[in-house]
Amino acid sequence: MHKILSLILGLFFITEAHAAIRIKDIVTVEGIRDNLLVGYGLVVGLNGTGDNLSNSSFTQKGLVDFLERLGVNTRGANLKTKNLAAVTLTATLPPFSRQGNKIDVAVSTLGDAKSLQGGTLLATPLLGADGEVYGVAQGQVSLGGFAASGKNGTAINKGVTTNGFIPNGAIVEKEINFDFSSMNNIKLSLRNPDMTTAFNIASVINRHLGGKLSKALDPGTVELSISSNQQENIVTLLSELEQLTIDPDSSAKIIIDEASGTIVMGDNVRISPVAISQGNLTVTITEQTNVTQPHSLSHGKTKTTQTSSVSVADPGKKMQVLDGKSNLHDLVDGLNALGVGPRDLINILQNIKAVGALQADIENR
């Protein structure tokens, strides 16, 4: 039991047991995706931890432009405030977001501001890749860390204070239209491309629909043809299809992270006939000092002598033989029997691969 526990503690071993998985969980509908938004704005209300305007010309220009929009002319003035910071905003616009929906916003400083703690973002447009405005962000910036310092120079920092976020900090102003009714076919993209899995998805869909309306175009794409009577009910059709289940297939692969000693092996790993021996010969040498005292009436002298003892500890492990039908479970059971630890297991797997007996790919991280 100790041998098995020692291996389990060092080896996080996952078997991909065949189980029915919903199509919904392994594919995405091509064209339905998130869209990235970005913006540039100002955070105000900082307690002297903002940008130094003499070092950040873009912050000063942003402040001047903002004040001009409010009717305040400060061009040419010597602005010295340190209570604001120029920031970049990033957000993700989910598919089918409607006007008025709210999304989260991440905030990061551009200049030499020390902290965004206590700051408020002014109204800032969020742009898509096409340059159009899809949202407007504004609100109190929340930080995942903090910074505090005393007059004698002592300081405490936790996390990064120049990055923050605003929960529900942006309002969607423009929608990205996606019209199902105009589509004659729909492509399903596999999250983990695999030829067999793509074929199985197409087969399951065809059996459900009672016709050859689906086909695998490549390991990562399954195409579904939309019949005329389903044109107006595509959402209902997709809702039915994504609940169908299949047994996903996967290639035989072993992932090794030598830094942490973590090994993850798929259930499809197979071992050709091979013999494995793992030796843990331990040699212990002990030095001991002996003192010899003369008789009380003799004229002898006290003497010291050194003695050495050598002991050899051999666990007596025998060679483990795995036949050609061995799978992942047989391999792990056999290596457990040899008392192999995770570090030794990494070397054994690489050596089995080197002799051509491991029918799997090894990927080092």
From TrEMBL:
Q: Which GO terms describe its molecular function?
A: structural molecule activity
Please explain the role this protein plays, according to its UniProt record: Assembles around the rod to form the L-ring and probably protects the motor/basal body from shearing forces during rotation.
Pfam families, per database record: FlgI
Question: Key word DNA repair present in the record?
Answer: no
Record-given protein name: Flagellar P-ring protein
Q: How does the annotation summarize its subunit structure? A: The basal body constitutes a major portion of the flagellar organelle and consists of four rings (L,P,S, and M) mounted on a central rod.
Which biological processes are named by the entry's GO terms? bacterial-type flagellum-dependent cell motility
Q: Which PANTHER family match?
A: FLAGELLAR P-RING PERIPLASMIC PROTEIN FLGI, FLAGELLAR P-RING PROTEIN
NCBIfam families membership: PRK05303.1 (NF003676)
Using the UniProt record, give the first listed, main subcellular location. other
Q: Which family does it belong to?
A: Belongs to the FlgI family.
UniProt entry keywords in alphabetical sequence: Bacterial flagellum, Cell projection, Cilium, Flagellum, Periplasm, Signal
Q: Which GO terms describe its cellular component?
A: bacterial-type flagellum basal body, distal rod, P ring; outer membrane-bounded periplasmic space
Instruction: Name the InterPro entries for this protein.
Output: Flag_FlgI (IPR001782)
Cellular localization per UniProt: Bacterial flagellum basal body
